[in-house]
Amino acid sequence: MSVHSEIQRITDRIIAKSASTRSAYVAQMKQQFEQDSTRSGLHCGNLAHAFAGCSPTDKSAISEGKIPNLGIITAYNDMLSAHKPFEHFPEMIREFAQKHNAVAQVAGAVPAMCDGVTQGQVGMELSLYSRDVIALSTTIGLSHNMFEGVINLGICDKIVPGLLIGNLKFGNLYSLFMPGGPMESGISNEEKAQIRRDYAEGKIDRATLLKGESDSYHSPGTCTFYGTANSNQMLMEIMGLQLPGSSFVNPGTELRTLLNEEAVKVLVEMIGEKSFSRTISQIVSEKTIVNAVIGLLATGGSTNHTLHLIAIAKAAGIIIDWTDFSELSKVVPLLTRVYPNGAADINHFHASGGMGFVIHTLLENGLLHEDVNTILGKGLSRYTSEPKINDHKLIWTDGAKTSLNESILRPVDNPFSPVGGITMLEGNIGRSVLKTSAVAPENYITEAPAIVFNEQEDLIAAFKNDELNKDFVAVLPFQGPRQNGMPELHQLTPTLTILQKRGYRVALVTDGRMSGASGKVPSAIHVTPEARSGGAIGKIRTGDLICVDAKNGILECKESTMSDRTVEIKDNSQSVGAGRELFSSLRQIISSSEEGASFIL
After folding, report:
1. Tens digit of each residue's pLDDT (9 = 90 or more) over 30-63
2. Which of 118, 164, 227, 241 is the most buried (most CB within 10 A)?
3. Residues 6+ apart with CB under 8 A from 547
């Protein structure tokens, strides 16, 4: 089926506005590809340093240059449950590389912080910045020009976008991602959310809260809710950068190991073709980026990707903005209900048909570009297949053509919503992003007086003092990338949800983030211009009437004198400790939310 006319129109617009930057990028990558800027240009001294720690067999193979050398960029640490499975992946990859006539070396490691650990802590102010640090670290790892192919080991929030941005700067190479998989299901997400609300209301003690959290986050693997980490995996699959059906296979299983070997085999085959079309610069195209946005909208994924996809696209010379997201959202239906957008977790989604069914139903209805390059070659239709085991060998079968549970996953002709799970708001406060997939339609419009808070702790204190039993819009300015690194404000979610359940109309407006765990309260986030840059959100005063309208895309302060006010810039020179002072100069140059919030692009 031909692609939907509106999707084609938006794609054509992106191609047109990206013409000069994309052509310059492709020309640079083509030049690097034709120059063969890998081991062939290294001197004997360079090579001796590079393989000094290798086995005699690998030394010989690398020095002769007759077989590929695969560079591993790893984000392993054992503090992140999602990254714990990567501990032994390099050893496994080296064995698979030898089996398929290649060599593999760890090219470098990148930082991998866990937002779940830093929520509400000062370390969260470094979280968004870590994406660009990861991109820089990736390029340093690949700068030795020792590798024809790249295997990326990363799962979580800023890590996958950072790895991809770094890889795109070596777009002459063949690259893929190797996921680790989600942990098996623990207690239900609804039970976890209720435990958090009970703690916020003082009904349970901290020990009971900790037990509930531990029963939810209980083993190696990705957290099972549909936050940024699992949105990353969805994106890598729908962009054709990792194997079909590989995103949500649990760690430590036979299928996981077989998929890992298949990924190595595929990468070696890509290198053997010596075709520029198989390089990562040609996989990540304008159509691929549009497919990524569509996947995000159709699955109600993390709002963090309204930042990350803009930065990823820019690294490949492609220009997108929130208008593209907003216009695509009007024609892309919401197909999934995975927590926080529903009761199910990512394992339930995978069992119901998973990514294969999502891609199938979108392609069948002309809502994805099929004619894109992937690590398997031309055509996204290959991503409707499903991996299975037959006699301890990996086989590919046709994926699900119908959903196995329509309370979790639905076809395009019977969606949960006719429009996507993320919408854009605009008005005299600025432009913002709002995740609608978890918000009930009756809460799409909130018009109430503002209460301005300096920090999320101030709102929680007001709640505990019984000051918030009323309709209001919580406004938290000075939480943007230039002010303090744009931390996620998840401490607000349980409190605001309790107030909403009590029958009050509440909403949130902030230039900070809420990410993939955004809840049932309408939250206008990523407001730009941010307060630090003089944005109107910094002019709002307690008592101003605020309209947050997700139905009509409006974000407005109805106080007539607001335009006459000036923004009193909040001092951020005290952002020291926990290493924050090392990032002070970057706060001055980081771009706006709608430009990807990047200090390197």
Report:
1. 999 998 756 777 778 888 788 888 888 887 888 8
2. 164
3. 427, 445, 446, 447, 554, 555, 556, 557, 558
Q: Are 75 and 154 in contact (CB under 8 A)?
A: yes
Say what the pTM is: 0.94
Q: How many domains does the chain have?
A: 3
Q: Which structural domain range is residue 456 located in?
A: 422-595
Asked if residue 290 and residue 175 are part of one domain, the reply reads: yes
Q: Which helix (H) or strand (E) holds 434?
A: strand 430-435
CB 300 within 8 A of CB 341: yes
Residues 404, 348: Cα–Cα separation, whole Å: 10
Token code pair at residue 546: 């605020």
Is 403 a domain residue? no
**Tens digit of each residue's pLDDT (9 = 90 or more) over 501-558:** 999 999 999 999 987 556 789 999 999 999 999 999 999 999 999 999 999 999 999 9
Task: Specify whether the CB–CB gap between 82 and 222 falls below 8 A.
Answer: yes
Side-chain half-sphere exposure of 440, counting CA atoms within 13 A: 7
Residue type, 253: T
Residues 392 and 450 in one domain: no
Region at 251 (left for phi over 0; alpha for psi -120 to 50; beta for the rest): beta
For residue 407, is it within any domain?
no
SS3 state of residue 42: coil
Instruction: Report the alpha-carbon distance of residue 526 to residue 28 in Å, rounded.
Output: 33
